[in-house]
Amino acid sequence: MKKFNIADGIYMLTLNVDDILFEGIWEIANGVTINSYIVQGEKTAIIDGVIGWDGIPETLYSNLKEIEVDPKSIDYLIINHMEPDHSGWISNFRKIKDDFTIVCTDKAAKTVSSFYGEDKILVVKEGDTLDLGNGKVLSFHPVPNVHWPDTMYTYEKGTKTLFSCDMFGAFGRMGNHCFDDELTPEEIDFFEAEGIRYYSNVMATFTPSIRKAIGKAKTLDINIIAPGHGPVYRKNPHKIIDDYSRFARYADGAGKNEVTILWGSMYGMTAKAVDYAEDILKREGIKYNKLQMPLESESEMVATVFKSAGVIIAAPTYEYKLFPPIATAINELGRKKITGKAAFRFGSYGWSGGAEKELKEIIDRNNMRWDFIESVEFEGAPKEEDLKRVEVGVLELINKIRDRVVE
Ligand code: FEO
């Protein structure tokens, strides 16, 4: 666990977590930080605690002591969001102290009771304040459905610090510094990529609510954004707000100036056309990502398609339907509400087709509204004329993404 003083009387405790499936689903190759914050006035509050995935509270308590905070002096547990990566330590804390107050929204209050059996709860609503003394005043601002319905921002008025929990977060483990102005150019790129992975994997489903939360953040006078995952933004807190605005556009079909080839092939027939499409993209100078399913992790697949302005789906018919790993991938993109992408599909079939029908069903069922160029299907291996049709499709796709590019 690392400790940082992020403003007068405000500390961050943060833990790099590796080797987990985030939410039990997402294989996060580069880890994630879980951030907790201590605000010290005459009274002390802890915002979104962290004890680590090992569940050992002593790590937290020894770190608190190192910043001269007696864990028993903590009066308020501010629960911005009840997901257990932020709240899972409450029952452990109860073992050392029983006279604290939990501060949360009405929706969180229900789960505080059902998850942990707690009942000393101060329910707050928009604009409510809590004066900790010594100039530290917290205000509370619900941002429902970021990422669960219970979520709120906590804002410290004296230092103009926004504790945003999941909002403005990123995956990625952190080095020995935490501020945006301390990041190297490589780390800035790393956290942008990990921010995209985080948004697409965890937050994309809630994009309309995220837009509202962006609007609410803009009504606050912010010097520092201190999220529950990833770096703290003090040099330019508005950069992460702008990044999140851009990510919200990616969820609606915009993207970087790149194409993702999402492909699968049983015996190399469709793969031949993939190679051909790749050559066209190279010839045209278009950046592309190539993801073979089911070999890629779901996390990587969702993040890569999400950030791309164009998608090539290359998949054959399998048992009268779409090649299953690709069907699963498209369905997952639909569940994440990644809509409006410019797309082109091609693929092989043997005795009969069926892939196209199932693809359309998945797209329609999830209301994805992807903008498809006419698909190319070929019997067995692609012939010269099939490859020519693939080339026409790829060129049309390149043309289609031009007005969708948002870098
Ligand atoms: Fe970081 Fe929705 O929990």
Text of the CATH class of the largest domain: Alpha Beta
Distinct ligand kinds: MU-OXO-diiron
| CATH level-two architecture of the largest domain | 4-Layer Sandwich
Runs in which pLDDT lies below 50 for 5 or more consecutive residues are none
Terminal Cα separation, in Å?
34 Å
Describe the structure.
This protein has 407 residues and is an alpha/beta fold. The protein has two domains: 2-251, Ribonuclease Z/Hydroxyacylglutathione hydrolase-like (Metallo-beta-lactamase, Chain A, 4-Layer Sandwich), CATH 3.60.15; 259-397, Flavodoxin domain (Rossmann fold, 3-Layer(aba) Sandwich). 35% of the residues lie in helices and 27% in strands. It has a seven-stranded mixed beta sheet. The protein has a five-stranded mixed beta sheet with strand order 10-11-12-13-14, with no helix packed on it. Strands 16-15-17-20-21 form a five-stranded parallel beta sheet, sandwiched between helices. Helix 5 packs across helix 9 (298-307) and helix 10 packs parallel to helix 11. The two termini are 34 Å apart. The relative contact order is 0.10. The protein binds MU-OXO-diiron. MU-OXO-diiron binds next to helix 2.
In short:
The protein is of the alpha/beta class and 407 residues long. The protein is built from twelve helices and 21 strands.
Features:
elongated; 21 strands; 407 residues; Rossmann fold; five-stranded mixed β-sheet; binds MU-OXO-diiron; single chain; seven-stranded mixed β-sheet; alpha/beta; Metallo-beta-lactamase, Chain A
